[in-house]
Amino acid sequence: MWLKPEEILLKNAFKLWVTEKDNEYFVLQRRRGYGEGGGGLTGLLVGTLDTVLDSTSKVAPFRILHHTPDSQVYWSIACGATKEEIVEHWEWLQQNIMRTLSVFDSSDDITSFVQGKIRGLIAEEGKVSLVLEDDPEKFREALLRFEKWFELPQKEKLVTYYSCSYWKGRVPCQGWLYLSTNFLCFYSYLLGAEVKLVISWDEIWRLEKTSNVILTESIHVQAHGEDHYFSMLLHLNETFLIMEQLADYSIKRLFDKESFQREPALSDPLQITKRGLETNARSEQFRAFFRLPKEENLLEVHESFLWVPFSHYNTLGKICLSENYLCFASQDGSQCHVIIPMREVQCIKAHTPALLSRALTVCVRGKRALRFSEVRDYERLANTIRSRCGITASPLHSASTEVTHFYYCVFLSLQGPCVTNPFFSIILKEKMKEQSWNIHFSEYGRGTSMFFTKKTRDLIVRGVPEALRGELWMLFSGAVNDMATHPGYYTELVEQSLGTSTLATDEIERDLHRSLPEHPAFQSDTGISALRRVLTAYAYRNPKIGYCQAMNILTSVLLLYAKEEEAFWLLVAVCERMLPDYFNRRIIGALVDQAVFEELIREQLPQLVEHMTDLSFFSSVSLSWFLTLFISVLPIESAVNVVDCFFYDGIKAILQLGLAVLDYNMEALISCHDDAEAVTILNKFFDSVTNKDSPLPPTVQQASVGNNDKASHVSVDISELIREAYEKYGTIRSEEVESSRKRNKLYVIQTLEDTTKQNVIRVVSQEVKFSASHLDELYYLFKRQHFLSCYWTMNSPVLLHHDPSLAYLEQYQLGFQQFSMLFSLLEPWTLCTGKSNLSLWVFRLIDENQDGLVNFREFCYALDTLYSGSFTNKLKFLFKLHLPPGRGKVDLQAYLKQWQDEILKKEETIKDLPRINQTQFIQFSKTLYNLFHGDPEEEALYRAVAHVTSLLLRMEEVGRRLQEPSSPTKPATATREGLPSEEAVTSPESSDASSTHSGQDAGSSLSEVEWSFSFEQVLASLLNEPAIVSFFERPTLIQTRLDQAKGTQLKVKANK
């Protein structure tokens, strides 16, 4: 069968393979232990190993590798169970591929062509027959094993499974890796030794591919401070991709709601599939590469050749089709790519095979045509494009002649006549730049269907002309497509947000005059009003982000070169697509990119790392670099050049420039003695950066520099700095950056969660007697219980209430159902009956604001009282459980009084407690009986409670007679006879019966005589019973309950 091409570094793999046939580009190999000869001892070992492993882990005995003469890298492209099958594939390659390869000049082109052909064959096979991994019968068997071994709730959705080895210490365990929606599970049973591992995705700190001396390739998972390694995976890259997708999905859904977008394939956690995850991953890569709106999904991919008119040759690449765009990228993504909005397509021509080989021509506006050839199923593709081109066309964006930028006109008016202007030569250079771009447009096209090539990047690095900057920013960021597909949207937002008053609008008003305050464009109401409208409209569009500091600085620069509506869509592109999660309360995106930056420093600047081992300094100092794209640290005329590169290359451009800045100041940073000195060095460097080709007036340039003292510093031209950044660090690939982003996002999120935990534990530890380690374990169980209510639904009330921006204690809360399950696992009376009622009363008591949720502090308060409280405190807690609950939520005055009492640390005394009536006292007695159930001293405890009950009733009767001597005693006597007596109560059954009977009698006589007890009376009576005092003062170890809860928490949920 044909295989998805995968790289193999060792062709012979320690002599496990024997070459049967080979030529210049392909090698056919047989695995030792199969076929003729057997292979001696090595063949015997290999054959035994393959026999022991299950069917999915076996390596096929025959395979075909692809290679090129000048490369040591081999690619597996086919495998076979029999020699006849592999020979059939070999002959097909000889007849169909070998002749074509001779026309290629580059080895990379040959490899890319072969890979494309193999993927095309796999796609064709997939349409005819089911892939073995999707075999429903095998998957059903795996699902049954998954449910049996791990006992997870039945709602848990198994996504896929793989055979692999898990390294426990130095010994590998061969078993099965199961990947479900919420858990990573592994099971192995060999020679009586069972290994079972269950890790939830939200607990993972690290997920990465690694290699070492023992394990050539493995997947490393870090959770709970432990490292886990999985190796010998048949499809390691595919497995890692699925794991990465599941971890990212879990993190977004549970921790980072602000960035979670409900994809159709991922909207329901009960319906996630392997195919859905793979489709979502491809669509994400597609949107990121072509800068398309988040609504676009990759629908079809076709390999083809595209005729490149400026180079006069056909380039091999892929056609990518979405709902509203036709895109093409060459084989490595760097030579050229084209984005064609369907709204710009005017006609499609499918050529007959007699004229051109399976070709179609796409005609777009501007009298341009793009010709694709060697397209499989080209007629169907042409019909698909035609059917999607019915979208109402919109005018092209052109800024060079028609669009007048506000600031550009201001600056020209300040220049005066060019003849006498000292900046005349600079303006000539500016005109030369414009001419270079116009030539580029004539060759490569202009507007949305322009060819993006290496030459485009070269022009960007040299600097963008002032007159074209707004147009190119819109084009490179994809904002031009957003604006074209949403006509009138910005105007509606401005009208709707006009006059609104929110926290975001208050912050915007506060920062308006801090945005480039000395710039001429923002020294009048015109510029300030435009800035206000753009920021307010965006805050109205995206209330989850609203407004964050640094957005005002970025928007100010956008308004200098783009129209107001264009600046709005540029801001949308930056906040929602190019810098995801940057502009929220936790700035997760910026923290992630700082972690990526640290990794690059370690790789690219080892000399600096040797002298500054603590790289956290660079994280703190570079935060403003990422948040404002260097605008806040560089002069404005230099910063805009950085923004040019950012809109073309994304965050990669900022990372490259950051490395170049550190490299330029390497010697000074190495010799500095502390962080303050290093900050001073970098600040002076940024102040010395100039743009010698900038046509901005001198007044603006001086106003943009924070420190104008450059006498002792050699000036650095921004164009040279950017060019050096691309020359030294341009090899950093965008794919590597995105992979590092995903890897570091797990660590950043978990670090923030750990900070939350430490802060919560620090606050709670001052109020309870639990040790720090116990609080740590309690927090783990509490947080896990929170997530157990979120795993299998999108509408969990607890998940909807979760808000990372809230105070630490309020971030994780439990509803009654979750609290009841966890409390039943941790309460000290293991044999207690009637736990559901007890849980309800405890929940009602500790839910002080009566919002139906309890936080960790409230939860710990209840457990601490029951475990560590004195006899009086425990009894008082049980007494308060039976008092009537408050009515509704507390009003403002009650809340203020409660807050004042907390400030004054007013201690509640036993005299402050209200009295309990007959019905409440009977229930209080029943609760005591339930607590004593199963205790070794059960009989003595029952008699003690009955004795106390009788004593209290006699005291109440005597008190009534003294206060009301003329009143009849019959009702009181009847009540007394209905309550349990010391002689009558000897078992829980009799206590329940008598209590029920007393409740009925009490209900009939309550209207005649009402009686009640104070807590002081109850406490005094119980203190006279040694058995009860001993029961409540008996020490109970919480560690035992914690250990049991860890093992049974998931099982309890599964049984519900």
UniProtKB/TrEMBL annotation:
* InterPro entries to which the protein is assigned, alphabetical: EF-hand-dom_pair (IPR011992), EF_Hand_1_Ca_BS (IPR018247), EF_hand_dom (IPR002048), GRAM (IPR004182), PH-like_dom_sf (IPR011993), Rab-GAP-TBC_dom (IPR000195), Rab-GAP_TBC_sf (IPR035969)
PROSITE patterns of this UniProt entry? EF_HAND_1 (PS00018), EF_HAND_2 (PS50222), TBC_RABGAP (PS50086)
**Gene3D superfamilies linked:** EF-hand, Pleckstrin-homology domain (PH domain)/Phosphotyrosine-binding domain (PTB), putative rabgap domain of human tbc1 domain family member 14 like domains, Ypt/Rab-GAP domain of gyp1p, domain 1, Ypt/Rab-GAP domain of gyp1p, domain 3
Tell me where it mainly resides. cytoplasm
Please indicate if the UniProt record lists Repeat as a keyword.
yes
Q: Which residues form a coiled coil?
A: none
Rab-GAP TBC domain ranges (all copies): 463-650
In the record, what terms sit under GO molecular function?
Answer: calcium ion binding; GTPase activator activity
Q: Which UniProt keywords apply?
A: Calcium, Cytoplasm, GTPase activation, Metal-binding, Repeat
Start and end residues of each EF-hand domain: 842-869
One of its GO biological process terms is: glomerular filtration
User: Region entry Disordered: which residue ranges?
Assistant: 960-1003
Localization (cell): Cytoplasm, Cytosol
GO cellular component terms, alphabetically, are: cytosol
Keyword Iron-sulfur tagged:
no
Spans of biased composition, class Polar residues? 987-1003
| Job description of the protein | Involved in vesicular recycling, probably as a RAB11B GTPase-activating protein.
Task: Tell me the subunit arrangement.
Answer: Interacts (via domain Rab-GAP TBC) with RAB11B (in GTP-bound form).
**Listed name of the protein:** TBC1 domain family member 8B
